[in-house]
Write a structure and sequence with these properties.
Elements lengths: L2 E8 L5 H14 L5 E8 L4 E4 L5 E3 L6 E4 L2 E4 L2 E4 L10 H9 L8 H8 L1 H8 L5 E2 L3 E4 L4 H10 L4 E5 L9 E3 L5 H9 L5 E5 L3 E11 L2 E4 L3 E5 L6 H5 L4 E4 L6 H17 L6 E8 L5 E7 L9 H8 L4 H11 L3
Parallel strand pairs: 1-2, 1-7, 8-18
Antiparallel strand pairs: 2-3, 3-4, 5-6, 9-12, 10-11, 10-12, 13-14, 13-15, 13-17, 15-16, 17-18
Keywords: ATP-binding, Cell shape, Cell wall biogenesis/degradation, Cytoplasm, Ligase, Nucleotide-binding, Peptidoglycan synthesis
Function: Cell wall formation.
GO molecular function: D-alanine-D-alanine ligase activity
Length: 328
């Protein structure tokens, strides 16, 4: 008998549109000979199952079930592809934990921590060969904090919501005069903001997941953006960025970053597929940590799928591995 999988998408933030695109790709590539898949859309107004015709059926939140033609459907597991809150910040996983329903992504604690860029940096700092750009985590948009950043950080710098994703609300500040506008934009998205000094180097992203106790590190993708930095448009608009998989690194650099990625995955106690973003600094060859994404995008232009195919695996096989790992 095929297992019933809830494909959870949507969300409460600006990333909801990206989440719906990711879900469409997963839905198209998941192995329907092994699983019955039900797309569950979550937003602030309602939780519902949407069938192929677009008809909606309300989710019973008492046990996360739906009723179809008089039959009660309960799920064997959840494929979580909900970016941002509540799918990536631990809220949804806590709910599933209480109901005893397994899911493909990290635990409540790991999800909550990794959603906060500043806290994540504090935990992974100290991993061998991994460096951190000088930064401030701000909890208030005040003249005092603006002055502190201007005095103690070198320009250019990045200003970004501490709990956000998809580069929404993020700015690259080249001059002190631009700093306050960037802080206003970021604080408009979040009540915490991270300000980091710019690292001169090339940007990469690397996928990591665990199967049967073994941590698998995928090939890195090098991101060459035609924009000032890898912003929302560069991430989700085809042709704006060139994505090279495997990225251009020496064999020694590949070995070194693979060890770093595995250590980050372990230290944060991740589960399922995550993506670590990093800079390879020009001239020094140092790896600088950017962030970890515990619900990486699965849109047509996303990076994980490229990396999976680079190791000779189909996306369908990859999704099957993630789903089966729920019950290990």
């Amino acid at each position: 008998m095929k297992k019933k999988i809830a494909l959870v998408t949507g969300g409460f933030t600006g990333e909801a549109k990206v989440s719906l695109k990711s879900a469409a790709v997963v839905e198209k590539n998941i192995d329907l000979e092994r699983y019955d898949v039900y797309k569950i859309i979550i937003n602030r107004e309602k939780w519902c199952y949407q069938d192929a015709s677009g008809k909606e059926y309300k989710v019973d939140l008492n046990d996360f079930s739906i009723s179809l033609n008089g039959e009660k459907i309960q799920f064997d597991g959840v494929f979580n592809i909900l970016h941002g809150s509540p799918g990536e910040d631990g809220k949804l996983s806590g709910y599933f934990d209480m109901l005893g329903i397994p899911y493909t992504t990290s635990s409540t604690l790991t999800s909550a921590i990794t959603m906060n860029k500043g806290y994540t940096k504090a935990i992974v700092e100290g991993i061998d060969d991994l460096f951190m750009a000088k930064s401030f985590q701000l909890f208030e948009n005040s003249p005092e904090n603006t002055c502190k950043v201007a005095q103690e950080l070198s320009m250019p710098c990045f200003v970004k919501p501490n709990n956000g994703g998809s580069s929404i609300g993020m700015s690259k500040v080249k001059k002190v005069e631009e700093l306050q506008d960037a802080l206003d934009l970021a604080f408009g998205e979040d009540d915490q903001v991270l300000v980091e000094e710019f690292v001169s180097g090339r940007e990469f992203s690397i996928g990591i997941y665990k199967i049967a106790g073994e941590i698998i590190v995928l090939p890195s993708t090098e991101i060459v953006s035609s924009k000032e930095y890898f912003d929302f448009e560069a991430k989700y608009t085809a042709g704006v960025s060139e994505e090279i998989t495997p990225g251009r690194m020496t064999p020694e650099e590949v070995i070194r970053v693979s060890k770093i990625a595995e250590a980050v995955y372990q230290k944060l106690n991740c589960k399922g597929a995550v993506r670590m973003d990093y800079f390879l600094e020009k001239d020094t060859g140092k790896f600088y940590f950017i962030e970890v994404n515990t619900v990486p995008g699965q849109t047509e232009t996303s990076l994980i799928s490229q990396q999976v195919r680079a190791v000779g695996k189909t996306v369908k096989e990859f999704y099957t591995e993630l789903i089966e790992e729920m019950w290990v």
